[in-house]
Amino acid sequence: TLAAGMAHEIKNPLASIKTFAEYLPQKYDDPEFREKFARIINQEVGKISDLVQRLLEFAKPTPPQKQPAHLSKVIDETVEFMQGSLLNKHIEVVRAYTTQDDVLVDSAQMKQAFLNILLNSLEAMDHQGCITISTVSENGHLEVQFADTGPGIAKKDLPHIFDPFYTTKSSGTGLGLSVVHSIVQEHGGRVLIDSDIGRGTTVRIQLPMNQTAGG
To answer: How far is CA 143 from CA 69, 100, 181, in A?
Structure first.
């Protein structure tokens, strides 16, 4: 799956680079072509670089540097980072946090996980909708729920959503939830998905709570 996915995702940018490179000798004196060549090459190499970086994050995630944190603050900072995209698509974010949200996490890694989840929800919803983010503490665990009003995921696709390169979208690498799964596992937690066509998707992340000063 990894090999096929990598080949597919890298082949398209390489085809663009190859086409422009072949025309470069005969069109080098055309300033418009050179400008377009520079822009396209930079763009396509960027796609490959991003893919490789995300693949590395999935295949060998950096061990988390855990520090005590209030998870609500980590979530708020991620939402703030996404504010422009949320406003552009008229997506409302509703937040409801428990008062007990002390966890030992690598805040940067958790932001990456939350960002990937929000991006998935954003892509699923068409220029309006709502994402409800809530936290619940119980049995020594803190659960974060991201519930969107998107179209939902078909039951046949649910068993594969954490597979690398598996995607039901027309664009995207399908690595987003794989990376989320890896990050949460490294934190001793788990990811659960509740979804069905026509009723939206809820992503649930369960993390151990920071119950003592020493973790």
So the answer is: 15, 11, 14
